[in-house]
Design a protein that fits this description.
binds N-(5'-phosphopyridoxyl)-D-alanine, globular, six-stranded antiparallel β-sheet, 15 strands, D-amino Acid Aminotransferase, Chain A, domain 2, alpha+beta, nine-stranded mixed β-sheet, D-amino Acid Aminotransferase, Chain A, domain 1, 8 helices
């Protein structure tokens, strides 16, 4: 499998990370997951722009201008071959003797394609189970940081409780999922928390909001209370790999009638049409 590592396209087996890489020692890096359908990226520019923001906020040197990132990622996708794919891209602060303060060294870049499996039909048709959990992560969740220990612990806590995903809250305010953005439907309107340092500004989130508006739904980006989540008619989660999925059980109780809701269905249909258009390009 071809990957991009340190300025070159090489087979994965030839990519070698130094043990003193700050990504390995400190979890000091940022990443992106970028889906592609039929050889066409979904919103590549938005992913590159978010990568640039993450790098700037983490004060990691950005090795390439946006145009060069696009060239590298496009080349990697074409080397991967056809079909749906997702690219995992990671930039760490680089290799340096262990010391917390920032070193003066070039960043390490790694990008890897893999086949993007269709979202399982049972998840689409039956929806997901979620549990609400206190958001124990750090306070800079707008950075797509590779330090994912908190998120991994929360996801595992959800799985241990028999659920698929955790929906997180800070006190009475809902933030997001362990690895997804969250939406609710209240009186027919789609509500999701606004971008802030408490959540990742998802690329799929923005697409879902656009598609919701296109199918004539009311969209409300505003802080969301935990008690509104618990009483919502519908709950959805979005991410580059989940697309947009309904949550049909929260904390062991059915959401609405326990089936994926009619409002979700309209947006999911629009999402499938959007993917079909991308593939046909
Ligand atoms: N995660 N919030 C968090 C904490 C996430 O980790 C993700 C995505 C999202 C959704 O962002 P987007 O729509 O841009 O994928 C929101 C990726 C898929 C991952 O870590 O694998």
């Amino acid at each position: 499998m071809p990957v991009y590592f340190d300025d070159a396209f090489v087979p994965l087996s030839q990519a070698r990370v130094h043990p003193l890489d700050r990504g390995f020692i400190y979890g000091d890096g940022v990443y992106e997951v970028i889906p592609a359908y039929g050889g066409h990226y979904l919103r590549l520019d938005a992913h590159i722009a978010r990568l640039e923001r993450s790098l700037a906020e983490a004060r990691i040197a950005n090795p390439y201008p946006a145009q060069r990132w696009a060239e590298i990622l496009t080349e990697l996708l074409s080397r991967h071959g056809g079909g749906d794919a997702s690219i995992y891209l990671q930039v760490t602060r680089g290799v340096a003797p262990r010391d917390h303060a920032f070193p003066d060294c070039p960043p390490t870049v790694f990008a890897m394609p893999r086949a993007l499996k269709p979202v399982p039909t049972n998840q689409v048709e039956r929806g997901l189970k979620a549990v609400s959990l206190a958001d124990i992560r750090w306070q800079w969740c707008q950075i797509k940081s590779i330090s994912l220990q908190g998120a991994a612990m929360l996801r595992q806590q959800a799985i241990d409780a028999g659920a698929d995903e955790a929906i997180l809250h800070r006190g009475r305010w809902v933030t997001e999922g362990a690895a997804a953005n969250v939406f609710v439907v209240i009186d027919g309107a789609v509500v999701t928390p606004p971008p802030s340092n408490w959540l990742l500004h998802g690329i799929t989130r923005d697409l879902v909001l656009e598609l919701a508006a296109q199918v004539d739904l009311r969209v409300d980006e505003r802080p969301l209370r935990l008690k509104e989540l618990l009483a919502a008619d519908e709950i959805w989660l979005s991410s580059s790999t989940k697309e947009v999925l309904a949550v049909t059980q929260l904390d062991g109780a059915p959401v609405g009638d326990g089936q994926p809701g009619p409002v979700w269905r309209r947006v999911w249909d629009a999402y499938q049409a959007f993917k079909a258009d991308l593939r046909a390009q």
